[in-house]
Amino acid sequence: MEYLHPNDSATLVHIYKAQRYLLLPIQEEQSEVLVRLVGDRAEDTFLDIRLAVDSIDYYVPFPLPEGEECKIEIVGLGKEAITWQSLQLSDSFDTSKKDYYHPSYHHTPPYGWMNDPNGMFYKDGTYHLYYQYNPFGSKWGNMYWGHATSRDLIHWQTHEPALARDTLGHIFSGSAVIDRMGTAGFGKDAILAYYTAHRSLGGKQWQAQCLAYSTDNGMTYTKYQGNPILTPFDGVADFRDPKVFWYAPREAWYMIVSADKEMRFYRSEDLKKWDYVSAFGEGYGARPNQFECPDFFELPMPETGERKWVMLVNINPGCPFGGSATEYFIGTFDGETFTPDTKPEVARWLDFGKDHYAFVTFHGVKERILGMPWTSNWQYANVTPFKQSRGMNGLPRELFLFSSAGRSYVGSRPAREVTALRREQILQPDLMLRDSVLFSNLMKDYAGDFELELEFTPDPAVERVGFTLLNEEGDSLPVYLDMKQGRVVMDRTRSGITDFGEKATPHERESGDWRQREGLNYHNDFALSTWAPLELCVRRSYRLRLFIDRSLAELFVEDGRIAMTNLIFPHSPYTSLRLFSEGGKTKVTHFRLYHLSL
Ligand code: FRU
């Protein structure tokens, strides 16, 4: 390896015989500099990488043409930076070192940054999950589609990224479909991936829809020569996250795309040329908020079997607790227009936590609507206490319609496959609870990975009933029913680390970077309780199911009528449990604790 400094800020690293990777040292608080493999493929574009200046947080592997001579161009890094003494050629990259908060049974990439799930589909017994991925650091940037597959929705195998950032831009979110008939001209059973190309030009953002196809069942993709395939007719700057679906009554493919504060429908005959149909959303739901990551599918009403259309709208900001969240609308669709059943001012939430975003569903799953959320919030996603890998997906969930007090809702319950994670269990006898009971060290051997299940039947006088998870450091996570206010609450105010504000770099605070635009008061944004209305449950008994995986808490009430997903950062795993019932007695039944592991 030899360094050539043509001028003060641009350096060429000349590698005479490349190994598989050049290991790049990263210092997260530094600004991004430009790094590029010199070449003529569209993917040989400049990447934004936080190369180390005076200390190293971790390394990332930069892929090289193995065995060949090559050059890497680095622009913007001072001559004194420790990167210059730390670059290493290597044939392997060690991902065995895990962050303290690394989840044990949720999907997460082995290194780098992850946000939205993308292009999920199911074919021949395999679930494919792609995701917004930065392979060159654990903060948002350099969007690729990372790739993982699973046969059981629980064990995920990581593959090479499927789509790389290129000269058209970052590879933003989107969807995939199986083209069984070969309509697009890439053969029968080709997988078609639709994504948004995003780049900034002279301070202005440009976004357009693109297509890539795979003829090997989604393992590798070729970008379509005619990209982009769809640009906005009115030049709207926020135009992204295409979701393609089949609409049987018209035997036609449709695409739904977010366009600023609305969703737009398009229709196509050849899956390449798309014609505008209609728009929905302006003035509807929580507003005025940026619409992102749409989904659109049918679900039956349980009582009548009547099929309704559901539109998922991920909005940022707009979450009742600040930042990003998943909203939905139930209504009808006639191939031209979507008409919601609710008034414009009604906002409905798929999850009542603060860390549930970009929920989208799998294409190709027949008997159920199955999807996954990314479990973070754009307010603080870039500064959570992770290093080696930042970002994880929630448990796979099945969506269903239900009604309560004459209104229709979408519920979200863990997919049945999740029970395969259960190992040992502790069964507790039923009990009549008054005041409080401490189960000291109940979860001691479960090292932060468990599922707790119980049912509360409170007497009418009860004001609050629930439980608190506790550890030896004095952190606590109360989860309870507030019968007076009619709410189920998860309070992470004292759950562990709640203030990671100091990790926001001055650069992030000052710059107008694409993802740093909102919310810098991490303490107040993180340390809070989230709640959901108990009126979604109709019985006088409440069955709670709580999953804890190191830094994630997912609560489901009444089999998913209420879902609540929150990040937590306890200083050590919660080991004890205190049950409490205030104001009256509560019967506790079905009380079980499971150790979960892969
Ligand atoms: C949602 C989102 C999408 C976009 C992607 C970029 O979290 O903002 O709208 O495609 O993230 O990574």
TrEMBL record:
Residues covered by the Glycosyl hydrolase family 32 N-terminal domain: 106-403
Keywords carried by this UniProt record: Glycosidase, Hydrolase
Pfam families named among the record's database cross-references: DUF4980, Glyco_hydro_32C, Glyco_hydro_32N
Family: Belongs to the glycosyl hydrolase 32 family.
InterPro entries: ConA-like_dom_sf, DUF4980, Glyco_hydro_32, Glyco_hydro_32_AS, Glyco_hydro_32_C, Glyco_hydro_32_N, Glyco_hydro_beta-prop_sf
GO biological process: one example: sucrose catabolic process
Record-level GO cellular component terms: cytoplasm
Matches recorded under Gene3D superfamilies: Exo-inulinase, domain 1, Glycosyl hydrolase domain, family 43
CDD domains given in the database record: GH32_Inu-like
Record-annotated DUF4980 domain positions: 8-105
Protein name: Fructan beta-fructosidase family protein
Domain annotation Glycosyl hydrolase family 32 C-terminal: ranges: 434-594
